[in-house]
Structure formats: structure tokens, C-alpha cells
Amino acid sequence: MKQIQLNKIDTGAPGNANKEELKKELFSLRKKMFSLQHLFYANGSKSMLIIFQGMDTSGKDGTIRHVFSCVNPLGVHANSFTEPCDKERIHDFLWRIYQRLPEKGRIQIFNRSHYEDILVPTVHGLLNKKLIERRYDYINSFEKQLEDDGTITLKFYLHISRDEQRKRLEERLTDPLKKWKYKASDGIESEKWDDYIRTYESIINRCSPDIPWQIIPADDKWYRNYLVAKAIVGKLESLEMRYPGDKK
């Protein structure tokens, strides 16, 4: 299998992409998603896990906010995984993930995920390399188990450029509506860009080949949102679901 190299993948919208047309298409996709999510909830035969990963400022929060603004909150939930709390630290690294998996008929969104437990320890050298290596196998087995149990997993890597990250970090310092997001560690983490990219490449290439990552160009927010919505609607449509009692 060909190995993914992130520096060879565009981070922006292609030159022929029509911004206004795709914004209209996004509106249409959200309407379809509303209907399909209602059907998914009523059908109740499968569950769905949607994972968002990406560098700091890649737009995980914004994507979730814009793409899922149309759905019924009774059937869709989102979780943000930050540094483990004291209770989570006394369990294995997947324990907190299991607590938040979706029930049948539900869609669960992860803003960051179990992949942080490979990413951060690798970049910061927090764990023995052999243990980190075993975590790749644990995650692959875990995601295969989810698949066997009827959970559809979609994994999105939001792909931004280093220049775009710098721009967005500067906005966090100057925009009153974004300043709350800025942390003193942001500048330090941005200096580890190359380490994070190498680790993400390893994750994308090695984790669950049967459940592949979708690499989403994320420099242009409108294009990012369109691609994510299109992928989710496409997956839901492919299920060919019916309402209970519908024999057509």
C-alpha cells in the first residue's frame, strides 16, 4: 500500500473550486443530513463514530459547529478529549473512549480521540517506545471490534499548512472572540510541527487500513466543511436504510 506523505497533499481548495457554489451545496447537504440522521436514529440497526484529528487550529471545533448545526441533538452527541483527568489516568488509555461510544441509532463525534494517546506520548517522549508501538495494535483491534459490533467509523484528518497555523494562532491573540482559545503552550507546540506531522503520517498509514483516514484540506474553511459534510452524507446514503415497518 502506498504510504501517505502529508507534505505532498494540498492543504487548500483547488483553483477550480467555486466558493459560492460549494457554500450552496453545503446548505443542501445539511438538509440531507438532517433527514438521513433522523432515518439513522429511527432505523436503529447501526451506530456511527466520527473522529476529527488535526494540528492545533486545524478547525475541529469549527467543522463540528458548521457541519452538524442542522441535526437533532437527541441523536447526535459530541465529546472533546483533552488531557486525561485523575480518574481516567488510573485506567487503560481506551477506558475513557469506551465510556462515550455511541448506542445503536446514535452518532457520536470525537473532537480528538484515542489517537491522542499515540500522538502526544510520541512527540513528547512520555512513554516507552515499545508501549507506544503496542498501542497501534490495540487501536486497530479496538476499531475492528467496533466494526464487528455494527459501529461505522469515519476518521477525518484536517490538513492545514504551517503558514495557516501561524496565521490562526496570531488571530487567537488579537481577536476577542478567539482569545479565550489561546494557551501559553500553543507556541511551544507549534515548534514541534515536524514531529507532529511525522507521527500523524505514521498513524494515518498504520491505523486500521480497513477503516481509512480521509485527509481533508483545511486551509479554506468553506471547502473543509463542504468535504466533511459530503463524506458523511455519502456514507449515510450508502446504508440504504428504511424506517421500521417500511417494506418497500
Overview of this protein structure:
By secondary structure, the protein is an alpha/beta fold. The chain has one domain (about 35-240): P-loop containing nucleotide triphosphate hydrolases (Rossmann fold), CATH 3.40.50. The chain is about 50% helix and about 15% strand. The protein contains 10 helices and 5 strands; from the N terminus they run αβαβααβααβαααβα. It has helices spanning about 20-45, 60-65, 85-90, 95-100, 115-125, 130-150, 160-175, 185-190, 195-205, 220-240, and strands spanning about 45-55, 75-80, 105-110, 150-160, 215. A 5-stranded parallel beta sheet has the order 2-3-1-4-5, sandwiched between helices. Helix 5 packs antiparallel against helix 6. The chain starts with 18 loop residues before the first helix and ends in a 10-residue tail after the last helix.
- In whole angstroms, the N-to-C terminal distance is 41 Å
Can you identify the CATH class? Answer: Alpha Beta
Radius of gyration of CA atoms, rounded to a whole number: 18 Å
DSSP strand count: 5
Q: Which structural class do the helices and strands define?
A: alpha/beta
- The CATH architecture term is 3-Layer(aba) Sandwich
CATH superfamily: P-loop containing nucleotide triphosphate hydrolases
β-strand percent reads: 5-15%
Q: How many domains would you count in the coordinates?
A: 1
| SSE succession | HEHEHHEHHEHHHEH
Structural shape: globular
Average pLDDT rating = 94
* CATH T-level topology: Rossmann fold
Strand numbers in spatial order across the main sheet: 2-3-1-4-5
Helix content: 40-55%
